[in-house]
Design goal:
By secondary structure, this protein is mostly helical. The chain is 52% helix and 12% strand. It has helices at 12-15, 26-43, 51-72, 81-106, and strands spanning 47-48, 109-115, 118-124. It has a three-stranded antiparallel β-sheet, covered by helices on one side.
């Protein structure tokens, strides 16, 4: 069985062009290798797990809603002191939770993945500055 042809009549392997990058640009090399590692993990049947990203989005939206409520509250300053205090504290704790989530759960992982009958997988990579070693 061969690959399915595309509209042009060529298979996917024939239409893929090699990726060319400047090897002197270390961040671009790391990004390209990260994308290749993520694609390899996905090819093994793992699906991206967006739970952490969704939690971060929800916390960010809650923190921003506190800031918007403080800004848009219709009373002038002396009368809205309690609301302003509550909104400021809510925004502060939302920002702190986002920071802690990034430091202790997300860390430097580039992929959170799950397979149907396998344990969860976390993928991280490292490429120290001014070195060519990718781990």
């Amino acid at each position: 069985m061969g690959k399915k042809p595309t509209k042009s009549g060529k298979s996917d392997d024939e239409t893929k062009k090699p990726i060319t990058i400047n090897v002197g640009n270390a961040p671009l090399v790391k990004k390209t290798l990260d994308e290749a590692a993520i694609k390899a993990v996905n090819d093994f049947g793992y699906q991206d797990d967006h739970t952490v990203a969704n939690i971060k989005l929800a916390l960010g939206a809650i923190a921003c809603s506190f800031a918007a409520a403080a800004y848009l509250y219709p009373q002038p300053f002396p009368k809205n002191k309690q609301v302003l205090t509550i909104c400021s504290v809510g925004y502060f704790f939302g920002s702190i939770l986002l920071t802690l989530l990034g430091l202790f759960i997300e860390k430097d992982y580039i992929l959170f993945a799950r397979a149907k009958y396998s344990p969860a997988l976390k993928l991280r990579s490292r490429m120290p500055r001014h070195q060519h070693l990718y781990t």
